[in-house]
Each structure stands twice: as structure tokens, then as C-alpha cells.
């Protein structure tokens, strides 16, 4: 077995029932020293020893084979670690139930977007979405059905976002946030209407809703220029304020507000 440790490369093998550790670096130096000694002896007038030369070559080839094995092991390990890191990163940023981004990803990515837009003077739109009367849905259909409903709503919202930089995240419970960089008021309202229409077409039954016989959502839309000295939470609060107005206005609709 070969293993790399620090700058040293080790070979482990069993001799006489015991595990013996060989340092490839030391072995290589020993072989090279033998070769240098033979060269020095020939220069001093000694005959060239073909048998000794053959032994040196065999030993060095053995070392090269060991190094190739270690390289393959190191490459495979590196690829596996890289894959594990990607998978771990995905898990950290993905909501386990719905499969969309989670609040942590939203907050981290929104900070990055804010820095970029504040430098370029770009606009940002944020949509805050809430499933209408979701508690009644859970009470009537059960929490397992509620989970299925959340997944369906998440997939429907995600399906309406076509640009690479746009994304939806589960904010918590039955609340979702859609982030639309470089999107003005008209564009954000079009997305909100598209989401409402898509949810209606999904036609998920909701007998206990006070709005319709199917699941509906309310949406708060907020848009404005991003300023460097304004915290990102303030933009989210604006969208939440618009959502509150949509609920008070009868639900199953969107309400717009500008960033304060």
C-alpha cells in the first residue's frame, strides 16, 4: 500500500508478519547515491559493472512504479474529495423538503448580488410569496399532504424563472422568496402574474380556503435601485410589507411597492 504524508511518500508492506514502512524519498536517494558512486568509480579508472548497473535500474524502475501508483491514488482521492465538497455545498444550500434553495443560500447570494448592483447602479426586485391559508390545508389534509403541496408550489415557482441569475428560495414554513437581479417594476410584476397563473393552473384542491377551491398564493413585489449603505434586510422587509398588503387586499394576488 502506498500513501502520501506531507512531503514524504511511504510504502507499507508485510514482511514476516510485520508491517514495514519504506520511505520512497529515502529509497530514491539511496539508488541515486549508488549510481553516483558507480559513475565516480568509473571516472577513477574502475571497470563499468553491468550487473550493478542492472540492479540500480531495476530498483529505480520499482520506485517509479510505486510513484505512479501513488499518483493514481492521489488523483482519485482528489477527485473524490472535490465531488464530496460539491455535494456538501449543495446540501448546505438546498432545502431538504422542496429541493430549491434555502434561506441561507438566499441571504448569502443576495449579499453578493447587492454588492454587484450597488457598484453598477442596477435595480433589484424581490418577491415575497406565501401560500394562502396553509394552516387550514395542513389541518384538513394532513402534514404529509402539506409537504407534497409545498414541493409542488416550489417546483411551479421555479418553473416560471427562465433567466440564469433569477432564483427562488424557501424562506421558511410556507413562505418563499424570488430574487430578480436587474429587473424593473414591470418585469417583476409580469413574473408575479405568471406565478399566480401557474399556481391556478396547478389546481391543487383546497376545500378549506376562504379564497378559492384550490391552493392560491399571495405575493409582495418590491423594486428599486440598490444602495451600498442600505442593508439587504431592508429590501426584504419592503417585499414583506407588500405581501402584507396583498393579504389584507383579499389574497390570491400581488401588491407592489418601491424600496423605501
Summarize it:
The chain has 260 residues and is α+β, with helices and mostly antiparallel strands.
Could you characterize what this model shows?
The protein is of the alpha+beta class and 260 residues long. Helix content is 55%, strand content 21%. It contains seven helices and eight strands. It is elongated. The relative contact order is 0.11.
Widest sheet: strand ordering: 5-6-4-7-8
Q: What is the number of helical segments per DSSP (H or I, 4+ residues)?
A: 7
Mean model confidence by pLDDT = 84
Indicate the percent of residues in helices. Answer: 40-55%
Tell me the radius of gyration: 32 Å
SSE-based structural type: alpha+beta
End-to-end CA span: 65 Å
**Strand residue content:** 15-25%
User: From N to C, what is the helix and strand string?
Assistant: EEEHHHEHHEEHEHE
Q: How would you sum up the global shape? A: elongated
* Number of distinct beta strands: 8
Low-confidence stretches: 1-21
Major β-sheet, in short? 5 strands, mixed
Layout of helices and strands:
Elements: E1 2-5, E2 8-15, E3 18-23, H1 24-43, H2 50-93, H3 103-120, E4 123-131, H4 134-141, H5 143-159, E5 167-172, E6 175-181, H6 185-202, E7 217-225, H7 232-248, E8 254-258
Parallel strand pairs: 7-8
Antiparallel strand pairs: 1-2, 2-3, 4-6, 4-7, 5-6
Helix pairs in contact: 1-2, 4-5, 5-6
Kindly list the characteristics that best describe this protein.
260 residues; alpha+beta; five-stranded mixed beta sheet; three-stranded antiparallel beta sheet; 7 helices; elongated; disordered N terminus
Amino acid at each position: 500500500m502506498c500513501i502520501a504524508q506531507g512531503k514524504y511518500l511511504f510504502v507499507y508492506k508485510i514482511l514476516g508478519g510485520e508491517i514495514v514502512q519504506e520511505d520512497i524519498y529515502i529509497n530514491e536517494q539511496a539508488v541515486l547515491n549508488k549510481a553516483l558512486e558507480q559513475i565516480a568509480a568509473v571516472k577513477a579508472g574502475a571497470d563499468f559493472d553491468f550487473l550493478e548497473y542492472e540492479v540500480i535500474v531495476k530498483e529505480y524502475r520499482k520506485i517509479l512504479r510505486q510513484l505512479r501508483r501513488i499518483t493514481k491514488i492521489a488523483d482519485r482521492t482528489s477527485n473524490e474529495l472535490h465531488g464530496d465538497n460539491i455535494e456538501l455545498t449543495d446540501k448546505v444550500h438546498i432545502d431538504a423538503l422542496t429541493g430549491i434553495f434555502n434561506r441561507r443560500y438566499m441571504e448569502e447570494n443576495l449579499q453578493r448580488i447587492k454588492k454587484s448592483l450597488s457598484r453598477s447602479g442596477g435595480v433589484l426586485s424581490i418577491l415575497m410569496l406565501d401560500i394562502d391559508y396553509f394552516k387550514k390545508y395542513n389541518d384538513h389534509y394532513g402534514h404529509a399532504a402539506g409537504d407534497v403541496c409545498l414541493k409542488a408550489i416550489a417546483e411551479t415557482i421555479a418553473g416560471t424563472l427562465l433567466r440564469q441569475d433569477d432564483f427562488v428560495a424557501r424562506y421558511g414554513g410556507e413562505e418563499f422568496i424570488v430574487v430578480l437581479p436587474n429587473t424593473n417594476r414591470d418585469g417583476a410584476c409580469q413574473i408575479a402574474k405568471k406565478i399566480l397563473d401557474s399556481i391556478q393552473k396547478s389546481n391543487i384542491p383546497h376545500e378549506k380556503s376562504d379564497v378559492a377551491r384550490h391552493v392560491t398564493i399571495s405575493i409582495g413585489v418590491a423594486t428599486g435601485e440598490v444602495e451600498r449603505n442600505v442593508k439587504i434586510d431592508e429590501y426584504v422587509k419592503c417585499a414583506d410589507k407588500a405581501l402584507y398588503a396583498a393579504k389584507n387586499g383579499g389574497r390570491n394576488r400581488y401588491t407592489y411597492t418601491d424600496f423605501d
